[in-house]
Amino acid sequence: MADQATAQEFDILVLGGGSGGYATALRAVQLGFTVGLVEKGKLGGTCLHNGCIPTKALLHSAELADHARDSAKYGVNVTLDSIDINAVNAYKDGIIAGKFKGLQGLIKSKGITVIEGEGKLTAADTVTVNGTAYKGKNIVLATGSYSRTLPGLEIGGKVITSDEALTMDYIPKSAIILGGGVIGVEFASVWKSFGVDVTIVEGLPSLVPNEDATIVKNFERAFKKRGIKFSTGVFFQGVEQNDDGVKVTLVDGKTFEADLLLVAVGRGPVTANLGYEEAGLNIDRGFVITNERLHTGVGNIYAVGDIVPGVQLAHRGYQQGIFVAEEIAGLKPVVVEDVNIPKVTYSEPEIATVGYTEKGAKEKFGDDQVETQEYNLAGNGKSSILGTSGIVKLVRQKDGPVVGVHMIGARMGEQIGEAQLIVNWEAYPEDVAALVHAHPTQNEALGEAHLALAGKALHG
Questions:
Q1: Among the listed residues 223, 203, 227, 204, the one whose alpha carbon sits nearest the alpha carbon of residue 215
Q2: pTM of the predicted model, to two decimals?
């Protein structure tokens, strides 16, 4: 075919311009490759436009609302008049617009060719966009994820996903949230702060079911104290909606009524009708199966981010993008296992974790080969000043390194940086105990927990 012969060719052709795709592109250009980046929507993907960034902006507004409500106990008399949702959205959209403009400028300045339109894999080295074929000596698939729903649960009207929740121009009086994972509890947190009567429905036995059992217990207690209602351990059956709102029924016949239902049951991979199966890729329940070095087993095709099974986090996609560019360059980058990727849930209180839970560590190393240590934030000066409670829990291999750090409390997400270094550099408690942690900071809680685990607890 003549048009194939004259097709624009790149060293690396990336399908998808979200966190995984644009990171691949930026690192590849640094390494001297020519790069084509195909994107049908906006550069920055889910994270920037309808994921991490907008939700964190809402959570910041929510935090300010809570501060206003509680200000009197700090001797500051402020009253909370109202939440102006249009102004909240304008603030959120301004943050997104600024970051989007910055990203566009960065991509352009590095000489990356952005190909606008919906791309489809049409051969092991070809992506076709709007009828034009582009060739890549290497292809990186980074097509991301979408808000999933359950079989038979139609999205529409008063049944919404996080996409619609982020653009709402009113605040509901009441809401039911289906799903008590990260997305569900973050929205529950925002809406509660905005004055919404919130109920979470989670079919599994607890909220945030992937977290360490101690963290779960503390988290549920904190949500109860905030007046966020939740039903766990009974699965969703169905929903009816009318002009007044929604009525949710569980499999045991119990019902809940509210203004709307937010479906937050996770995100699914965007891989359908993109030519992946036809190219011979191994697709399992929509996910692209790769080896640990993110190669698909077909030609020079790699996959990164939310379409690869594992934790769906922007920073994982970003790291995998850098990894693949370096892999193609022959730099033999180091694999970071999913368990050692830092995870933060930005609700109030925040959860920040990295490494094995106590249960996971016992499964890996044996019941008698694991030690744990808990440090209560009640003993931390800065946490008391902020008015937060919570804990730091350490999990270590007996006589070995720390293999898990699990934290809960206001702002504790900011402590994940040191925690992920501790776990990924396989530090021993004694190593961390010897380091100086600035006073008074919440960061000290990490130091104190390691002092205790090293047998040198000065407090408690």
A1: 223
A2: 0.96
